[in-house]
Structures are given as C-alpha cells and as structure tokens.
Amino acid sequence: MSRPLYFDDGVLEVETDAGATVAIAGLQGLTITPSWNINRYYTADSGFIESQKQSEHEVPVEIDYGKFDVDAAQEWLGGDGSTATSSTDTSDPQKFTVTAVTPADDGSFERTCVVEGVTFEEFPMVDGSRDEFEEFNLSGTGEIISQLEDTSAA
Fold this sequence. Notes:
Elements: E1 11-16, E2 21-22, E3 24-32, E4 35-41, E5 51-68, H1 70-78, E6 96-103, E7 110-120, E8 136-142, E9 144-150
Antiparallel strand pairs: 1-2, 1-6, 3-5, 4-5, 5-8, 6-7, 7-8, 7-9
C-alpha cells in the first residue's frame, strides 16, 4: 500500500566520492529526476513508431537550501578528491553522492533514493539581498540511481 511521503521529516546527505560528508542544511526543496534519451525509429510506409531504444542516461539533481558549511564549497573548489580555499586548476570535477531519505506520513515506510557521481557546474557561495536570509540552489547531474527502495526495515 502506498502512503504520502512527508518531505519536512526527510534527511538529505551529500558526500564526496572519497567519503567526506558535506554539510548542506536548511533544506527547502529537492528534485531528483532520472532521464533517458529515447531514440524512435519510423519507416516511410507508416506513421507509427516501429522501434524504440534508450541511451544517454543522466540524473538531474536540484537542491534548494538555506545553510551550508564552507567545507562544502571547498570540496567543490578542490576538484576530485581534494579541498581548496581558492579555485583549483583541475579538469577532474569533485563527484558527490546524494542520499535522500523521506518517511511516509504515518512512519510505515521510508523511501531512500541514492544518486552517485553527481557533479555541479556551479556552486553558489554568496547569494544575498538586503533584509533577507541567503538562499541557495545547486543544480547538478548524476551518473546513476544506485538505490531506490523502502529502507524502513534496514
């Protein structure tokens, strides 16, 4: 039986491929939407699709948040497997694993979704306006969904 999921009770974990936990908090929103490029084959004698194949899988990840530790930005600045306090000249991006755990409204189950190999082209470090709290948005692309299941019994 399916139950509504209550986002406000969920947990977001972000870590580097090296296993360093990245503190991103004050979660406002999270969207994980895997996609495939669908190739369709048509013939000249029919308007119907004759065959379909999928290729080029990717997992867009959008995180809206209000707080982050400076370590999160330093992980991104450092590139693959390192941290830095300024921009680093490297062609290997830092890859992150994003884990989202969301419970059902009655606690009967929890959905765990894990995206691996997430890279972010941009990492906002200052985003403020007068008389407002800073709010941030990370948009990235993951390589795979490595887990999507009920983990309440785990």
